[in-house]
Design a protein that fits this description.
2 domains; mainly alpha; 3-stranded antiparallel β-sheet; two-stranded antiparallel ribbon
């Protein structure tokens, strides 16, 4: 009985080898070169997708925060380097299935002309590679850096268009409700606010989607650095949404006041652009205030 038990345990160890993390990352050159080769192949497959993604970050202001996300993800990995070196490495064939799923999504996105699917497939492939070479425990340690990469991917155009119009209408409604308190009569039709001096159109660029997405991303960063509680981190991220919407409405309110009481050309030019930056900084201040209020109450849960 004892010999049979020993033989069975040895068989299980061979089928599911577990290696201390430091031996894999430091003492095994084959593993290192394997990662280099796999990384090169992944870059070769995704160079067009990544090139278009970086171009969108640069050319489309709504997604310019994407440049910060990979830097933040790399920092997260570097910060956990000691834990990663000590993590039990147990490669599993399950990761191959995840990689295959990611490549299938890539093909679907490529031939279906859907950039979002092609970009998301890279994150699926990265997840599968970590699982294949490192196992479930390593993937658990890297789950947040991998998931945070989703913030760098622009949302699909079909969803983006469904979000921007309601935001335009909401911002115009809020500004129209506030302007009469400052002595400015208004008549609103959809996203167009008719003032005595001129018509003020809340265009797609004024919907607030840019500040909303950027503030949400920064709220995730802020929560990670300054909070240990998962629920507080989630609350900070969610609080950024109404803050961004309210700030955009105040920006349109200010533009309307400048149109009525100052100079329409200057209001639609310098003030409109400058106020965007000012309101974004005010939004960050509001996020900080929300965090300070949250700190007045004890946290219910924390993350290591």
């Amino acid at each position: 009985m004892q010999e049979g038990s020993i033989t069975e345990n040895m068989t299980q160890d061979v089928q599911n080898p577990a290696i201390p993390g430091n031996r894999v990352f430091v003492g095994n050159p084959y593993f290192t070169w394997g990662w280099v080769v796999i990384g090169g192949l992944t870059a070769a497959v995704y160079y067009r997708v990544l090139g278009k993604l970086v171009t969108d970050w640069y050319q489309i202001p709504d997604f310019s925060h994407g440049f910060l996300v990979p830097i933040f993800a790399i920092y997260l990995v570097w910060e956990k380097r000691k834990i990663l070196f000590e993590t039990r490495i147990a490669p599993t064939w399950n990761g191959i299935a995840v990689v295959a799923l990611g490549l299938a999504v890539l093909l679907l996105g490529t031939f279906g002309a859907e950039l979002f699917l092609a970009r998301v497939s890279l994150i699926i492939v990265l997840t599968g590679l970590v699982l294949s070479f490192g196992g479930w425990q390593l993937l658990t340690e890297l789950r947040f850096p991998v998931l945070v990469l989703l913030l760098a991917i622009p949302i699909p155009a079909i969803i983006f268009n469904q979000i921007t119009l309601p935001l335009q209408i909401l911002a115009s409604k809020m500004a129209s409700a506030l302007l009469p308190f400052f002595g400015v009569p208004v008549l609103r039709e959809g996203n167009v606010i008719e003032l005595p001096a001129m018509k003020l159109e809340v265009a797609e660029a004024c919907s607030g989607i840019r500040s909303l997405m950027s503030l949400f991303t920064l709220a995730v960063f802020y929560g990670y650095f300054l909070e240990k509680s998962f629920w507080r981190r989630a609350a900070l991220a969610l609080a950024s949404l109404p803050i961004a919407i309210a700030a955009n409405a105040v920006r349109i309110l200010g533009t309307g006041l400048c149109v009525q009481y100052w100079d329409p050309d200057k209001a639609m030019g310098f003030f409109h652009e400058f106020s965007g930056w000012v309101m974004f900084l005010i939004s960050l201040g509001c996020l900080f205030i929300v965090h300070r209020i949250m700190r007045l109450f004890p946290a219910k849960g924390s993350l290591a």
